[in-house]
Amino acid sequence: MAILREKVLEYSLRMSRSGMAPSTWGNISALDRGSGVVAITPSGMEYDSLTPSDICLLDLEGAAVEIGRKPSTETALHLAVYALKPEVGAVVHTHSVYATAFACARREIPVVNATLAAVVGGRVPVAPYAAPGTRELGLGAVNAMGGRPAVLLAAHGVLAVGSDLRAAYTVAEIVEDAARIACLAGMLGAQVELDAAETARIRTEYLRNYGQGE
After folding, report:
1. Domain 2-209 class?
2. What pLDDT digit, counting tens, does each position of 120-177 carry?
3. Residue 13: burial class (beta carbons within 10 Å; 0-12, 13-18, 19+)
4. Which of 10, 47, 44 is nearest to 30 (CA)?
5. Which positions are annotated as active-site residues?
6. The whole model's pTM is what?
7. Per-domain residue ranges of the chain
8. Are the CB atoms for 172 and 106 separated by under 8 Å?
9. Rounded Cα gap, residues 69 and 98, in angstroms
10. Hey, which of 18, 24, 42, 114 would disulfide with 69, CB 3.0 to 4.6 Å?
């Protein structure tokens, strides 16, 4: 589990230093499906102070695999995603400013740029409000997310998922970037959204051709 812990720490530091997780807020986890072990950030600790041993190891029921730090207060959110989305291997929860502004306004992030179409495949939906730290928050998020890899948590922040940490973190970055662009486009007077057919075409091409392949 050492590598899993190191990866969670690596992306936690990236998230914090990017400004997407102010202070001790936001959280990241990754799942080793083979062993059923989840590595998740600890509760209330400054990211720059963390070492790999501070990353908590849990089973899929939330029980500690080894004695260590207290895990994130959003553990139930992460575990709900893993339980309901078997294709997911990592969860990134940010409080990035522009996307969270959409979450607080209960407004979906529109597909104003091709990058969001490619990475998310459509608008970023908004889950109904549920109390932080509850399984209900996770259930509502998964339901609202549908087949997309991101959802806004009303009055809260962003939830991004992926097959691994790199994929999930990329989704979180692209969602924040699209939210910022949408805000700026709105200030210019026109949030012109890509239509559904073009969004689907871009998404298909991205899944088929982006990257270096195997």
Report:
1. alpha beta
2. 999 999 999 999 999 999 999 999 999 999 999 999 999 999 999 999 999 999 999 9
3. middle
4. 10
5. 74
6. 0.95
7. 2-209
8. no
9. 31
10. 42
